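BUG-289 | component: ligand-complex export | severity: low

The export step for zinc ion jobs runs without errors, but we want the raw record kept on the ticket for reference. Input record follows.
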Amino acid sequence: MKILILACVSILTLNISAISQDWDNIKITPIKVHDNLYMMTGEGGNIGVSIGEDGIFLIDDQYAPLTEKILAAIGTLSKDAIKFAFNTHYHGDHTGGNENLGKQGVDFVAHDNVYKRLNEGGSAKEALPIISFNDQLTFHLNGLHINTRHYRNAHTDGDSIVYFNGKNTIHMGDIFFNGSYPYVDVEGGGSWKGLIVAVQSTLNNIDDNTKVIPGHGSLTDKEGLKIYYNVLKDIEGILTPLALSGLSLNDVKKLKPLEKYDGDYGKGFMDPNSFISIVYEDIYRNINQ
Ligand SMILES: [Zn+2]
């Protein structure tokens, strides 16, 4: 298991260093979700931006070398200052800009475990949330009630989904990888089971008109989230019997049980081999603990 984790960590590190050469070519693109509400893509997790009379509410900030570009893109939407910034979880492709923004006086808010992991991970003081919460928090800003809800042990142990009540829009952070295999950060307190619970419970909270911003992938709706949920459930249904019969990870890999999804879903952050390794080991551990 240790070797597996190390292999995964080095894969992730490679991905990040491979793209770090290329910051100059990355464009930050705002996509309108509703009046005064935007999703922005660039490199790393999707950003959420609410603008309005009270100032900017920002969700996640990708990587540090992109901060200037992100601020320039926000500047095309509004000249107001960032009032609050929120982190959906601790990963560097969502919090990498925290320190730059914190030094400019932006106040960060996130779940308690995001604070804990950033702090213990040696992040600068300016990169840390100054407000953290353990369950839910609501921002009353820009005529909206922006409700952030924590989901336990899903992608990590500090995930939040942000509900823009008044705009019928949610930002799901990395609980939702739209169109690709999700990463479950088991070392960071995530779990396959918790990921599915979070998606299922979100589906119960939204309606057919809800706009859904994923952590990665394109803007979608309840239908798009349902497709993702069905894929997760199908994968669970395929892998659970194999784990129950006690097959080793290597034997399972030889069976190529997820081959039908690998072509479409294995092109994102998680390649097919890393994905099945993490998920199978987690399901196996759950069954045999
Ligand atoms: Zn993440």
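Assignee comment: Attached the raw record above. The chain has one domain: 2-288.
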